[in-house]
Design goal:
Order of helices and strands: HH
Number of strands: 0
Radius of gyration: 22 Å
Distance between the termini: 50 Å
Largest sheet: none
Number of helices: 2
Length: 97
Amino acid sequence: MMRVIFSGPGERNEMGRALMLGMNFAVGMAVFSFLGYFIDQKRGDGAIFFTVAGIVAGLAYGAYEVWIVIRMLNEQARRAEAGSQKSEVRNQKNEEG
């Protein structure tokens, strides 16, 4: 779905991340729920089995999408932390030498 990582300083970056997580979850829920509802309507027997199955599948897919985004954000944070540690070491070496 939407695997775009927003970059930039401050609140805008945090708001973009929150929006991305919410949109990934909501789109997954909407698509699978609609598919389940559509199948139930085509069958025409008044049952809601596929609608419920679509909701469950949407929850699972939405959770998976959120998990993927969180993993990407954690990886970015680790890289940024490693980069800042390297620059601190360089600064210490420059001050000593």
